[in-house]
Amino acid sequence: MTRSTTVQINGERLWSELESLAKIGALPGGGVCRLAFSKEDKQGRDYVEQRMRDAGLEVRIDPIGNILGVRDGTGPDRRLVLTGSHIDTVGTGGKYDGSLGVLAGLEVLQTLNEHQVQTHHAVGVVAFVNEEGVRFMPDMMGSLYVSGQLGLDEIEPIEGIDGKTIKECLDEVAFSGEDDIPVDFIKSFIELHIEQGPVLLDKELDIGIVDRVQGILWEEVVLEGESNHAGVTPMHRRRDAGYVASSIAAYVRTLTEEIEGLRGTVGALSLFPNLINVIAKEATMTIDLRHAEKDRLIQARDLLHQKINALCEKEKVRPSIKPLADVDPVIFDAQCVESVEKAAEALHYSSMRMISGAGHDAQIMASKWPASMIFIPSQDGISHNINEYSTPEHVEAGANVLLHAILDKAGMSTL
Ligand SMILES: [Zn+2]
User: Fold this and answer.
1) Whether CATH 3.30.70.360 fits 215-327
2) Model pLDDT, residue 413
3) Rounded Cα–Cα distance for residues 164 and 160 (Å)
4) In angstroms, what is the span from residue 186 Cα to ligand 1's centroid?
C-alpha cells in the first residue's frame, strides 16, 4: 500500500471515531448491538448527529429517522453528491458494518473543511435507518424510504420481532424529524463498506471497486408427508417429508456446481414432529439463491422447482412453495464506478472490480440515482459477528478513495 501526497483524510481520527461509536451498544468481547429503532440505535444516531453539527453541516432528520448532513457547494448546480451507510447492527454485530460508511463520510467532509476545499456540488453524508432488517422487515428500509419505494404509512405499522410497531418506537425514542430529503436534490451516491467476505483478503488487495450487487431469490418450501412408525413402515410405503427436504438441500448444493457463480443456501429447516422414531409428517425449509445475472437466477429457480416436484411426486409428498423475496441484480453506474477506480489508482492502492455478495443501501439508491460502492478487506472474511475487523490501514485507504471519488463527482473549484 503506497500513500499519495495529495489531500488525505485523518486516519487516526476516523479510527478513534469508530471506536467511540462502538462503545454505544457495546457487547462483551468487542461486538455491538444496536438493533434498529432501539434505545442504543437512537444513542448512536444522536452521536452521529452531534458529529455532523460539530463539523458545521446542515443537518436534516426525516420522519423515519434518516439523518443527513450537508456541506454546501459553490454552484450553480448544487445537487448533492452523497455518501453514507447505516449504523444499526444485527444482534451480535461488529464495529465496522455500516458505521464505517457513515463515519468515513463524516471524516471526508471534515477533511474538506480543514483543507478549505470548495466543491461545485454540495456534498452530504447520510446515516440510513434499519439497513439490517433483523428487528423490522424489510431491510434497507431507510434507503427504500428516501428513494420513494416505501411510504411512511407502510412503515409505521410494521411490527417487529418483539411485537412493537415502528410507530411506537419512533414516538418512544424521538427518532423522527420533519425534513424529508428532497428527491431531486440528490445527484449521486457512493457508499464505503467492509467487504464482509474473503475475496480482497485472499487476493491481498486494498480496495474493491464494486460494480454489481447479486440478485436474491428467497423461498419457503413446506412439504407435507405422513407420520408413521420408523421401525415397521416399509421403505417403499413412506411419505417422508424429512427425506425429501434433505434431498432438496443436497440438490441446492449440486445446482451451485452446475451454474457458475450461483450461491445457494438452505439456512432453516424444521421437521414435525421431529422425533427419532417417527417419519416426519411435515418439513419447512428456506432456500436462498444468489447470482449477479438475472437469467442465471431464474434458471436456478426453474431447475430447483422441477427437482422439488420430481422428488415430491416420487415420495407422494405435497409441496407448497412461497416466494419470500425477489431482488434483481444491480449494475452500478459506470461513471460512479470509474470515479472509485480512478481514485484508487491515483492513490496507488491495489484494487479490483468485484461483485457485492450482500445487500446494501447503495443498491436501493441505484434504482433512482447513479451509485457505486467501495469495499475494504474484512479480516477472515467475517461480519455480522463480534470479531468483525478491518485494519486501520484499510479503513484509512477506503476513506481516502471515498474522498477522491467524491471530489471527482463534486468537482473541486479551489484547494
Ligand atoms: Zn452494512
Assistant:
1) yes
2) 62
3) 5
4) 21
